Amino acid sequence: IDPTIKPTNFAVPGLELGEALQETDPISLLDGLPVNLPSFLMPYWTEDEPRTALDALIEAMQGDLSAEQWAFLWLGANDVIFDFTNYEHITGDVLLDETPTPEEFLSLYKSILSTIADSNATQIFTFTIPNITKTGFFFTTLDLSLLLKTDAPAQIINADDLIPLHVAAELYFSVMMGADPAVLLGSLMPSEVLDLDEQALVIARLESYNNVIRTVSQEEGAHLIDVASEFNDILDSNYQLKSGRVLTRSWFGGGIFSLDGMHPSPTGQALIANAVIEEINDLLEQDIPLINIE
């Protein structure tokens, strides 16, 4: 492995699985961002030549047939994330209608992975999807108590309920303007709370997707990196570094997630990267050093 080789990112922000097979003009998806950002992130797209994300990947790998081409696919998270992080937050029963069924996910994922497997990719690595209900985007009653500086959440909200970040932000600013936190919490709508049954729906749908990823990866000869298992273990408990620093999933300085609560922080990215490095070292007998996150 040559550390001087720069990888190319073919991801389109927010792209869902089916959209990876649709011709896309990413420039239009990034309106309002700096003009040079799309070309910097996605050099294989131009405004006058829409193409699919998959086509761009295949074209790039065919550019230099003499070099090893490694493809890394982390797909499927956006299909669930967007239905539980939008500002009109839907309830769990709608999830089943708004996200691909396991059968639809199988068809889409197999189409993408088989196309890459039939290309000149030397190695293909696939990733499972972690439990998004364990991210910093969802506030526990303890998180809310810290945010609102009151013990009202523990007294009013069910202990297992989760509150999305945008709802927590609205609560915070209302309390700062003088509103009574107990009254606000007591008037939360069901669509503003992810209860235990809804969490179970999310987890079940994610697991059905992960089962597809595991099965298709084996069929297509891809190397599966089970990020879900690795990362979920970290999110389920506090992760203590040798330095004594403790990492948690909490939005409040937990250290694993960025301020949007969903994307990992540099430390969180390093934890994931180390899991990937360990798998590559084991699978391909490499000796890539781990990232120091102390």
Describe this structure in words.
Helix content is 46%, strand content 7%. It is mainly alpha-helical. A hairpin with a 5-residue loop joins strand 6 and strand 7. Helix 5 (92-98) packs parallel to helix 11 and helix 6 (102-117) runs parallel beside helix 11 (196-220).
SSE arrangement:
Layout: H1 26-29, H2 37-41, H3 53-61, E1 70-73, H4 77-85, H5 92-98, H6 102-117, E2 123-127, E3 138-139, H7 141-148, H8 152-156, E4 163-164, H9 165-176, H10 181-186, H11 196-220, E5 223-225, H12 227-236, E6 239-240, E7 246-247, H13 266-284
Parallel strand pairs: 1-2, 2-5
Antiparallel strand pairs: 3-4, 6-7
Helix pairs in contact: 5-11, 6-11
Notable features of this structure?
7% strand, three-stranded parallel β-sheet, two-stranded antiparallel sheet, globular, 13 helices, 46% helix, single chain, mainly alpha, 294 residues
Helix content: 40-55%
Tell me the β content.
5-15%
Instruction: Please provide the count of β strands.
Output: 7
Structural class from helices and strands?
mainly alpha
* Unreliably modeled segments: 33-41
Q: Largest beta sheet: what is the strand line-up? A: 1-2-5
Overall residue-averaged pLDDT value: 81
Characterize the overall form. globular
Q: Rg, please?
A: 21 Å
- Measured distance between first and last alpha carbons: 25 Å
Biggest pleated-sheet summary: 3 strands, parallel
Order of helices and strands: HHHEHHHEEHHEHHHEHEEH
Task: Determine the number of helices (DSSP H or I, runs of at least 4 residues).
Answer: 13
